[in-house]
Amino acid sequence: MTVTDIEPAGRELPALRRLRWRRRRRAAAVLSVLVGLVLIFAVLSLSLGAYRISLDGVLRTLVGQGSSRDEFIIVDLRLPRLVAGILAGAAFGLAGGIFQTLLRNPLASPDIIGVTGGASVAAVAALMMFSAGSLGVSVAAFIGAMGTATAVYLLSWRGGLTGYRFVLVGIAAAFMAHGALGYLLTRGEVREAQTALSWMVGSLGAARWPEIAVLAAVLGLLTPALLALRPTLGLLQFGDDTATGLGVLLERSRIGLLAVAVTLAAVATAVTGPIAFVAFVAMPIARRMMRSGAPVLLPAALVGVVVVTGSDLIAQHLLPGNVKTPVGIVTAVIGGPYLLWLLATTGRDGRGT
Amino acid sequence: MLTSLRPGRGERDTATVTERARTLTVGRRLGGLLIAVLLLAVAVFASLAFGARDIALPVVVEALLDRDPGVNDHVVVWDLRLPRTVIGLLAGLALGLSGALMQGLTRNPIADPGLLGINAGASLAVVVAITWLGIGTTAGYIWFAFAGATLAALAVYGVGSMGWGGATPVKLAIAGSALTAVLTSLITLVLLTNLQTLERYRFWQVGSLVGRDLSTARTVLLFIVAGTVLALASGRVLNALSLGDDVAHGLGQHVVRDRATILTATVLLCGSATALAGPIVFVGLVVPHAARWVTGPDYRWILAYSGVLGAALLIAADVLGRLIVSTGEVEAGLVAAFLGAPVLIALVRRSRMAAV
Hints:
heterodimer; A: mainly alpha; 14 helices; 77% helix
C-alpha cells in the first residue's frame, strides 16, 4: 500500500488540474499553430506574384518604408485581396460554427440551408438583369441572404425550432435558389453568365476597400455580441430542455445567435461571394484540433482564415494555366473530400472517434 | 362470463372488421391510383393542347387521330408537342420511381437525385463530354450522364454507409451535398475557362423537355423499362428493408443482394431521367411523399403511385412553364423546383420526421 492509495481525494485535485493544464496547453499550441499559418500565408500572398517582392520588401512596405512601386503593388493590389480573405474566412468560420452548434446538426452551414444561395440569386439577378456594379451586387447579396434566412426561420418555426426541420426547410430554399440561378444563367449574354458564374463560386479578387471596411466593421461590432452569447451557445448544445433548465432564455438567445451567424455569413458573401465549404468545415476541423466537443469559436474562425488564405494561395500561384482560379473552387475541391472522409470516419455525435 | 362461453364470436368479429378494413384500403388505393392515372391523362392532353401557338382543342384531337402533314397545327402537335410529352412521360416516370426506390433503400425521407449528388455527377460527365469530346447533342450526352450518375450514386452511398451507424439519412445527405459542391466547383472551373461549353451547358442544366428528340428517348427506353420492372418487383423487398436490416435478414431477405438490385434499378432510372431531361430536382423527392400520404407505408403501392404521379407532375410542370410567361417559356426543371420546394416545406412542417 502506498500513500496515494490511502488519500484518493487528495489525488483527484492534482489530476483535474493536470487535465485542465493539458487542455490549456493544447489550446495554446493549436492557436499558435493557426496564427503562425495565417502569418506565413499572409506574407506569402503579399510577396508572391508576377512581380515578386522579398520578405524584407514586404515588411518595409507594411511599415511605410517601401519603394513607391512596392507600395502600389502591395497596398493597392495584394493587400485588399489578403484582408478580404482573412475577414471572410473568419466570418464564414464563425457563422458555420454557430449554426452547427446552435442547431446541433453538422449539416447546418449557411451553404446548405440556402443563405448563400439566396445571396447568389439576388447578386446574379442584380448583375445580369440590372447590370449592377460591385457595390450594387454586394448590397443585393446581403439582402438576398437576410431575406432567405428570415424565410427559412419563419417557415421552419412550428411552436418551436428543431435543427432537422430547419435544415430540411433550408435545403428546400437552397434548391429553389439553385433553380432560379440556373434560370438566370440561361438568360442574357454568355459572357454575362460567365461573370455571374465566377461570382457564384466565390473569389477574393473583386473585393474593394469600402466593402472590406464594411465587413471589418460588422465583424468588429458583432464580436462583443458573440462574446456575450458564447456561454449560452455552450449550454444550447446540450439540448433545449437542459438549456432551459439551466436558465437560458431559449428563443431570445437563439434568435440572437442566429441573427449574428446569418449577418456574418451574409456580409462575407456580399463581399467575396459564397466560398464553398469554409463555414462547413471550420468547426469540425477546429474540434478535431482542440480534441473538444465544446464549441470552439476562436479556433473555428482561425481555421476559416487559414482555409481561405491558403486556398487562395493555391488558386493564385500553384495552379497551372493563365486563368485566375476563384478561391471557392479550391476550397470545394479540398473541403469536399475532407468532409467525405470525416463523414466516413466519424462517430455518432459528429466528433472524431 | 358470457364472453368466455362464446369465445369464437369476438374473434370472428375482429377478423371481419380487419378484412373489411383491408378491402376498403385496397379499394381506396386502387381508386387513388385511378385518379392518378386520370391526372396523368389530363396532363398529357394539356401538354399536347397548350403552348405558345393557339390550337383549338378539336384541331388537337383531329391532329392526333388523323394527321395531315400539310396542316401547320398538326405538325406542331406531332413534331413539337408530342416528343416533349413523351420525354416528360418517360423522365417523370423514371424520376418518381427512382425517388421512391432511393427513399426506401436509404430509409431517408429526403432522398432525391438532386440531393444525393447524382445530378451533379451526371452534369460533370456532360461537361466533360461537351468540352473534351466535342459532343453537342442531347443524344450524345446520354451515356455520359448515365456514367456520371452511376459513379456519383455509388460514391455517395459508399461514403454514406461507412463509419458509425451505416447509411443514416443525415450522413447520406451530407455526403450528397459535399459531393455536389465538389463536382459543381469542377464544373464551374471548366465553364470559366471555356465559353463554348458554358453556352451549351447552361441550357442543359436547367432541366428541360425541349430540344430532346425522340431518338434520345428510344436510346434509353430499354433502361427505363428494365428499371421499371426491377422497381415494381422490389416493393416487397423494400417493405422488409424498411423494418431494418436485422428484421429483413430475419424475414429471409438477402439484404446485400437486394440492396444491389435496388441500387441498380435506381441508377438505371435516375441516369435515364437525367440523360433525357437534364438535372431535375424535387420530382423524385415530392412524388413518393404524396404517394405515401395516400397509400400508407406499403412500398408496392408507393412505387406504382410514384411512377404515375412523377410523369404527371413533370408534364404538368412543363405545361405550366409554357403558359406562365407570354414570351418564351420557363423550363420544366425550374417549375418543378418551384412547385416542389413549397411541398417539401409543407411535408417537413407537418411530419414527425423533422422532429428527430
